[in-house]
Each structure stands twice: as structure tokens, then as C-alpha cells.
Amino acid sequence: MEVTISESGPFKVVALRGEVDLHTSPGARSAILDSLRSGRPVLVDLSAVAYMDSSGVASLVEGFQQARKSSLEFGLAAVSPPAMNVLRLARLDKVFPIHASVAARLGDRP
Amino acid sequence: MTTEPAPERVQRTASDLSQALDILATVSQDFALLAALDDTLRHALQRVMDYMNAEAASIFLLDSSGRELGCPVCLGPVDVSHVRIQRGQGIVGRAVSTGRVQLVRDVRLDPDFDSSPDHQTGFITRSILCAPLQIKDNILGALEVINKKGGDGLFDPDDRSLLRALAAMTALAIHNGRMAAALVEQERMQRELELAREIQGRLLPAAAGGDFPVHGFNLPVSEVSGDFFEHFALADGRVWFGVGDVSGKGMNAALLMAKTISLFRCLGKSESSPGRLLGVLNRELLETSYRGMFVTMAAGLYDPDSDRVVLANAGHQPPLLRDSGGAYRELEAEDPPLGILEGAEFGESAFALDGAGLYLFTDGLTEARLPAGPLGVEGVRQAIDALAGLPPPDRVAALGASLDAAGARRHDDVTVMLLERPAPGPWRLLLDQEFPAATAALADIRNALRVACREAGCPPQAEEQLLLAVNEACMNVIQHGYRFAPGQTLRLQLVERGPGLVVRVLDRAPPVSDSELRPRDLDQLRPGGLGVHFMREVMDGVSCLAPPPGYGNLLEMTKRWK
Contact B537/A89, CB-based, under 8 Å? Predict the structure, then answer.
């Protein structure tokens, strides 16, 4: 798994690529939590996620909870089909704000 | 005047010494080069005799009783190789019994001297020098030289020292030669045992295909086995099967095993009643019975057309019948072992197999010692239950392998045979692999599963779900079972069964109960604890089973597709 952090408008964008499993999810988790600590809203780009297990889901949940505590926006963008299947299984597909893409979320904003 | 002889004397001693060293070196080289001990001794003795300037020389060696000396090599005008000397008799005997060099300058003055050979041969013995052949405290025999040529014909103290050195070297060579010969003999025996093992292995049936109803294995505890199993199909499709155990171990048990298995195969071709067949086998074995050896044997005939089994049992460990629901019936043996009772008759039981598995085995299986105690019949049942998800040939092999996995000490040969009607549809082991129980191995595990799923023609969605469930199961083992302890492993088995897959995850972590596998309440939003929910959601069946010996947990999950 690769993690890249970039900035897009007001957002920190954490892009995950490859397989997010118990071995790699600690990297995703710290990237998400670090980004939130900057005080900016966070979007997690899941477009290139080929596989995600429950530890990957847990990293997203943790980010979501941390953002709520800090009153920051937290959303998922361009969720790949494998990642979406896992989110549905965890019944989280209605809990996370999910955007078609990072650009789509930016377009929401005037 | 007095100074003249001294340098000469010194010179002679130096030359003596160098000559002595020379001969010692040559003799030791001889010993190293020549393979056959007698040739070596003859060669060495020739050099000893030449150097000592003796008229005759001989080597005497104690026999295996240690009381009598024989003469394997002698040189000189008289052949004394037929002579036998009692330990302690004569001058040779004195050297042997005292362990000291005997210098008899003039034999006429020695009361122990035996002059009878001289009388018989006309040879005149004047002086004898005889050194014991000795390795530490162990006396092997003696090295004797007779009559010094030239001079006064008598040996002197210098000769004594030299012969002692030569004798030490000769003793060492004899000792080494004997060790080498013993080693060669040992290697020959080992080769013969290996050959016997190979021949015996060929007497057992080759592994049968998955569509054959009988599978078995034999694990000998030593080179050769007293156990056997046999199965073969008749032209009409009926199948003979049998498992036996010869009393005792080693080569004699192996030979009786060879006889029994050959007779069984031969008689099975013309006989159609297992009871009668055991009766004939009993008579044949009694005719040539040897030292009370006997054979316990269970044998039967299975007819695939009618699904009926006829079974007879000559004093063998009761077979286990496990029905398709997992209930067991032990089929007791009423009749005596083969080779004991004249005119013994052997009863038969007949039953429909009806999806059951009939397990025949020897007591080497039940008596295999696990760290917690003997496996026992109960342990055999548990092991079979734990392996029931595997196809019959793999299940039988796994029964043997699980003993080793459990660190069982086997005291006896282990033989297991299974009669089970082949299931309709595919049933095969696609993957059986040990992986490190480490997060870094999860990607490898998923890749191995992908390959196996594609081999089974698993639909893509089912594959994705199976991968997710197995990944979660392995995560649980790593996180909760082993608590991330390094160096641990887990074993993954993937079985294609009907239109679907069965996956088995085995670990050696402390046991986890089925109730701990309950999914958590999803309404609570919190990270973690989703794994069991995922597994139950995407798989058709998830259950914790009692693991086979040597494992802590067995999780079995089923995925079916149309």
C-alpha cells in the first residue's frame, strides 16, 4: 500500500493505493490522524484501493471519530468497488460522507 | 684406548634409531595402505622379521573367548599357523597374561619353554623375544620373533625396546582393522535393511485415486514394519481390503507380514467370504508357525454396486464406523488372531456403508504417545472428526501427519485404512500450506488463495468474499490467538467440495471458544471487532471445530455457489 498526502482547496487529501490490510493499515491510520491534527478537513481518496480488510475500515472509523471530536469534516472520495463492498458489509456506507471524487466535493463548495 | 669404542657405539645407536624410525614409518604406512587385515599383518611381520634379523616370526591373537590364542600369520622355516596356545601357556602365553615383553635369551633356561614343536620339526629354538599386542588394558595377542641371525643368535635388551614399539603399532593396526571390518559389516546390514524396507514398501498397495473407495498408509517405526494394509479390486468391481499387525517387531515380523499379505492377495482372488478367507489364512500360518508369532487382522469385501460391506476380524483392534452424521460405532472383534488356534472359525458382519467411513487401524495409532498421553480410541475419533472436511485420501494421510505435528512418539508401526464411498461431485484438496502468523504474510495468503480459487473455477464475487473472510480469520489468529508473538505459524487448507469451497484455518494458539466468534453489535460505531461479522456475513458456514492433535484451533468456513 502507498499513501500520499496532498492539499486540495481547504482539504488535506489522503490517497491510499493498493491493498490495505493489517500489515499496511497502521500507515493509513497515522496519515489520516496526522492530517486531522493539522486542523484541516480530510478527504480519503480510495479510488486505487484494490483490497481493504476490517483493520482498514477501523482506520477510517477512527479518523471519522477524531474529526467529529475536532469538529472537522471527514469524508471518503472515489471509493473503489472492493472498498465499497467492505464498507457495505460493515454497514458504514451510510455513515461516512462519500463523494464521487475529490473534485466533486470541491465543486460542492462555492 | 678406551675412547675408541665409544663413538662407534654411539654411531651404531644413532643408526639403529634412525633405522628403527624408518621401519616404524614403513610399517605404519603399510597399515594405512593395505585393506585386508591378514595381508597387512603378513606384510608387517615380514618387515619386523627382517629388521629384527630373526629366523622366524609369528603373530598370535586371542580368540573371541579370550582364553585361547591362534596364529593367523607366521613366517620362517616352520609353519605354526595350526598351533593353539592357552592363555598363560608357554612364553607367548606369558606375554599375554602378564602384558610384559618376554626376552628369553636362552630358551634352555626357561621352564615355560615348550620344546615339542622343535622335536616334531627339527627346528632348534635358541632365543625368543615376545611382546604383547595391547591397546591400553585390552590385550589382543602377542608378536613373537625367534633366533637372531648372526652373532650369538640371542636377542638383547635393545631388541626388546624395538619390538615393544613395533608391537604397539601392530596392535593399533589390528584394532583399526577390526573396527573397519565391523563398520563394513554394519554398512552391509544397513544396506540390506534398506533393501528389505524398499521391497516391503512395494508389497503395500500404491496410493489409490480419489475415485477408489479405499485409502491407507503405513508408517514403520524402524526400517521394516510388522504392520500391513492391502486393497485390490476384483474383475467384477468388488474390493478386498484388510489391515494386519504381526506380533513382535523387526525382521522376523516383517517376513511374516510379507507372507500374510501375499497369501491375502492370492486367496482374495478365489475366495468371496472374508470369514472363510481368514480361516484359510489361519491354517496356512499355523502350518509354518514360528516361536508363537501371530497376526491380528481385519479384512473385508466391499461391493460398490450394493454399497454393502462384509467384514471379518481375527483379534484385530476394533474398526470404527463413522456415519455421515458423525456418530461412531466400534465393531468389536470376537475371533482369535491368526496363527494361534487350530480350526478357528471367523464370523462375519455385514452392513450397508450408507455414506459412512470405515476406519481400520493398528494399535500403533491408538498407542502413539502425545505430550498429554496416549492418543487412545477417543483421540483417534477426535482426530477423524477434525479431519472430516478433507477428501478421504488426504484425510487418511493427515491422520498420520497429525501425529508428527502433535510431537507424538511412536513406539510401534502405525497403519490406517479408510473405506468410504467416493462422494459425488468434486472433492479435492486445492491448498495445504503453512504460513507465518504475521501481518506481512497476509498478502501471500491472499495470493495463494486467489490461485487456488481460480483452479476451482470459483466465481469472482465468491473469491473476493472468501479472501476477505480468510484474511479476517488469519488476522484473528495473529492478533488474538498469538497476540503478535513472532515465529508462530498457521496452516491453511482449501478444499473444493461440490460446487463450493471449504477453507480450514489451523493454529497452535490457546483454544478459542465458538462463542468468542460471535459478531459484535454493528450499531455501536467503533473501530475493530468487525472481522467475525465479515466472516459470518460473506460465508455460508463458519464453525470452530475440535482441532486435530497438535493444533490449538480449527476454524472451518464454507462458501457455496450455484
Answer: yes
Alpha-carbon distance of B157 to B159, in angstroms, equals: 5
In whole angstroms, what is the distance from residue B130 CA to residue B69 CA?
14
Asked if A65's CB is within 8 angstroms of B475's CB, the reply is no
What residues of chain B score a pLDDT lower than 70? 1-17, 20, 27-36, 289, 514-528
CB contact at 8 A, B311 and B384: no
Q: What's the start-to-end Cα distance of chain A, in Å?
A: 34
The model's pTM is 0.71
Per-residue pLDDT for A36 more than 90? Answer: yes
How many C-beta atoms lie closer than 10 Å to residue B16's C-beta? 13
CA-atom Rg of chain B in angstroms: 38
Q: DSSP for B316-378?
A: ----EEE-TTS-EEE----BPPBTTSTT-----EEEE-TT-EEEEE-HHHHT-EETTEE-HHH
Cell reading at B24:
616404524
Quick check: A89 and B533 CB within 8 A? yes
Beta strands B54-62 and B68-75, pairing class: antiparallel
Q: Are strands B295-303 and B239-246 parallel, antiparallel or unpaired?
A: antiparallel
Contact of B476 with B507, CB cutoff 8 Å: no
The arithmetic mean of pLDDT across residues A61-89, rounded, is 95
CA–CA distance, B528 with B542 (Å, rounded to integer): 19
Position of cell 490522524?
Answer: A33
Contacts of B109 (CB under 8 A, 6+ apart): none
Nearest Cα neighbor of A102 from A2, A12, A3, A23 is A12
ipTM of the complex: 0.91
Residue indicated by cell numbers 469524508? A75
pLDDT for B225 equals: 81
Give dist(CA A37, CA A46) in Å, integer.
Answer: 21
* Cβ neighbour number for residue B169 with a 10 Å cutoff: 20
Cα(B78)–Cα(B98) distance, integer angstroms: 26
Strands (E), B194-260: 214-219, 227-233, 239-246
> Quick one: which of B222, B148, B208, B125 has its CA closest to B393?
B208
Separation CA A87–CA A31 (nearest Å): 20
Contacts of B454 (CB under 8 A, 6+ apart): B463
Kindly indicate the confidence band of residue A64, based on its pLDDT and cuts at 50, 70 and 90: very high
**DSSP secondary structure code for residue B454 in this structure:** H
CA angle centred on B445, ends A79 and A93, rounded to 5°: 20
How close B505 comes to chain A (CA, Å)?
Answer: 17
Q: Please report which helix (H) or strand (E) contains residue B507, including its range.
A: strand B500-507
Contact B467 A55 (CB under 8 A): no
DSSP code per residue over B366-413: HT-EETTEE-HHHHHHHHHHHHTTS-HHHHHHHHHHHHHHTTPBPSS-
Q: Are B142 and B60 in contact (CB under 8 A)?
A: yes
Chain A contacts to B (CB-CB under 8 A): 19, 21-23, 51, 53-55, 57-59, 61-62, 64-65, 82, 85-86, 89-91, 95
Half-sphere CA count of B109, side-chain side, radius 13 A? 7
Q: Out of A19, A22, A61, name the one closest to residue B527 (CB).
A: A61
Q: What is the DSSP string of B150-167?
A: STTS---HHHHHHHHHHH
Interface of B with A in 441-480 (CB under 8 A): 442-443, 446, 464, 467-468, 471-472, 475, 478-479
What residues does B220 pair with on adjacent strands? none
